[in-house]
Amino acid sequence: METLTLGKSLNLGLRRAMEDDPKVLIMGEDVGKLGGVFRITDGLQKDFGDERVIDTPLAEAGIVGTAIGLALRGYRPVVEIQFDGFVYPAYDQIVCQVAKFHYRSRGKVSLPMVIRIPFGGGIGAVEHHSESPEAYFSHTAGLKVVACSNPSDAYWMIQQAIASDDPIIFFEPKRRYWEKGEVDTAAPLSSAYPLHSSRVLRSGGDATLLAYGPMVRTCLDAATAAAEDGRNLEVIDLRSLSPLDMAPVFESVRKTGRAVVVHEAPGNIGLGAEVAARISEECFYSLEAPVLRVTGYDIPYPASRVEEEFLPDLDRVLEAVDRSFGF
Amino acid sequence: MTKVERAASRRGGKRSGPPEPEFVQLLTPEGERVSHPDYSVDFTDDELRGLYRDLVTVRKLDAEATALQRQGELGIWASLLGQEAAQVGSGRALRKQDMAFPTYREHGVLYCRNIDPIMPLGLFRGVDQGGWDPVAHRFNMYTIVIGAQTLHATGYAMGIVKDGKVGDDDETSEAVIAYFGDGATSQGDVNEAFIFGSVYNAPIVFFCQNNQYAISEPLERQTRIPLYQRAAGFGFPGIRVDGNDVLATYAVTRAALDNARHGQGPTLVEAYTYRMGAHTTSDDPTRYRVASEVEAWQAKDPIVRMRKLLEKQGIADEAFFAAVDEQAKVEAVALRERVLSMPDPDPATMFDHVYPTGSPLIDKQRAEFATYHASFEGSH
């Protein structure tokens, strides 16, 4: 076991993937000498060379589009999009090409690509650096979408995503890059928790909190606070946003009868809406209250001086739990 | 004058004027073989007859597909009429190991890659969306989003460099050709492809068929300078070739591909041609261009000039021309029969191949779909 930050865990996971498969490439803006603006690729170009860790022109559609060609050539590109708000120039290539190549070819060709996107707010950044665009991609058939929430998952999930033949959008909770946790780096990849699985991180019988990425920590903290008031909250990290792994969620909600979904992204047509709908379809007779959502407001991401009021926090989560018990 | 004619007049009538400067030509519209200092290619008699046969055949197959659309057997068709020389010339210039990234109109290139012409018709009939292995055929699936494939081509070419497949040996070194049109040159993707191709010195030929129109919009809506001159700003050579001259197109493309495979980086080739037909079978070109313009281009027909050359050189007789026509007709009839016998897919197969490793969500929907349809069995 090692104690590592989430960012360092990603770095070590990338390193291990590059060691395991010479076809793995890293592409992006500033990923080489600089090691990425968050240093997630730190030291990789030095050790693997600039043919495998590629500083690209400043053009996101170009990065993703050329990564498609490299994947057709037999490579496994891992693309870094520098910030969530900069992915949109590549949106057409991701949605029309990456997502559909396998389907269009009737299974004759795969694009084993990973597109890493640091996402979410809470770092006091300027516009376009704090967004949560996961719903856009989760809505698109042909893409798989995951979000890591802690160092151990970061280390394993990035390796699993790279090893997968599916194109995967990999969301990283940027404000949690510096949080530490235990990582068993000596274990084999095959022993890792399955990539497209949600996971119960804290057991409790009174209500279920559902989150992913940066909001998992918030929910765990909320559960700790609630326990002091005598309420036992179950916390599930969804981890895979497409496909959603709902079986553990249904099992939990059948037990608790109450569910609150939490994400930073605006609520309107967001992941929480899908999760709530599925729960109501499958667990209708178990529910003691409607599924509630705690999300960002339906506004553009606000200026950083007020972002703490935009982002769901412990108090808003607990307030929603209180409302759930009010039914 | 009609409104359309006035617009054509304002454009200076250059479409019917002399060829623009820096236009590589080896065969005039009158069938005269001319020389060019940089592109002195000798063709054997067999090669010349072969190119003529290709031109006639791809035009005939194209006409058959247009007819199939008119009869309701294809949903849509993007005709290559008028662009046969640009496609056959560049298609035959490819070496076996080269990789092509087409738009949705490169039926002639596909034919020259010795690929069964039935392959893309499933897309136009609506029974699939391509469905072929791009790498196995050395010919990517048709790409409909304008210009998107130029980036895929560039990435593929970057992979050739990584694989150490750039070099002096013409039999093993590889190059890529990316097809696109005049309209696509306005797309960000195409400009980004130029940049990536340039800075990584990728072995790629950017082959622009300038057919003068992006659906209804004339070239003037895309550019104020000749398209091949754009290359200078990206740091690689650009050249304009008479796209209705199969010999010049072959020579220029072959040289550009070999330069690329030898490590000299990208070239932009602008094949100056004309879309004689509609953009697709859904389009009505009489709304945006005048008959006189089309007639002027008719006089530059790529097949007529090749036939004149063969006749002048005395290397083909009436019997040859008749045999070529007859063989093309046989291939067109065969194509028709195979289109008509294409089965519709089993609807349940729409759930297949969304992901290489599958998805529980889709498995569930496939099962529900089957159950739903099974519920109607036996009912009336």
TrEMBL record, chain A:
SUPFAM superfamilies from the entry?
Answer: Thiamin diphosphate-binding fold (THDP-binding) (SSF52518), TK C-terminal domain-like (SSF52922)
SMART domains from the UniProt entry:
Transket_pyr
Could you list the residue ranges that cross the membrane?
none
Q: What is this protein called?
A: 2-oxoisovalerate dehydrogenase subunit beta
Tell me which cofactor or cofactors this protein depends on: thiamine diphosphate
Gene Ontology molecular function terms on file: magnesium ion binding; oxidoreductase activity
- So which domain of life are we looking at? Bacteria
Task: Enumerate the CDD domains for this protein.
Answer: TPP_PYR_E1-PDHc-beta_like (cd07036)
Q: Name one Pfam family in it.
A: Transket_pyr
Q: Which residues form the Transketolase-like pyrimidine-binding domain?
A: 4-179
Give the InterPro entries listed for this entry: THDP-binding (IPR029061), Transketo_C/PFOR_II (IPR009014), Transketolase-like_Pyr-bd (IPR005475), Transketolase_C (IPR033248)
Asked if Oxidoreductase is a keyword of the record, the answer is yes
What organism, scientifically named, is this protein from?
Catellatospora methionotrophica
Q: Which UniProt keywords apply?
A: Oxidoreductase, Thiamine pyrophosphate
From TrEMBL, chain B:
The UniProt entry, under Gene3D superfamilies, shows: 3.40.50.970
- What InterPro entries would the database entry show? Alpha-ketoacid_DH_E1_comp, DH_E1, PdhA/BkdA, THDP-binding
Q: Where does the record place the Dehydrogenase E1 component domain?
A: 56-330
| One Gene Ontology molecular-function label | magnesium ion binding
* Region described as Disordered: spans on this chain: 1-23
Cofactor(s) recorded in Swiss-Prot or TrEMBL: thiamine diphosphate
Give the record's keywords alphabetically.
Answer: Oxidoreductase, Pyruvate, Thiamine pyrophosphate
Q: Which GO terms describe its biological process?
A: branched-chain amino acid catabolic process
Is Oxidoreductase found in the keyword set? Answer: yes
The record's PANTHER family line, in alphabetical order, gives: 2-OXOISOVALERATE DEHYDROGENASE SUBUNIT ALPHA, MITOCHONDRIAL
- What name does the UniProt record give this protein? Pyruvate dehydrogenase E1 component subunit alpha
Instruction: Please tell me the species this chain comes from.
Output: Catellatospora methionotrophica
What phylogenetic lineage does the species belong to?
Bacteria, Bacillati, Actinomycetota, Actinomycetes, Micromonosporales
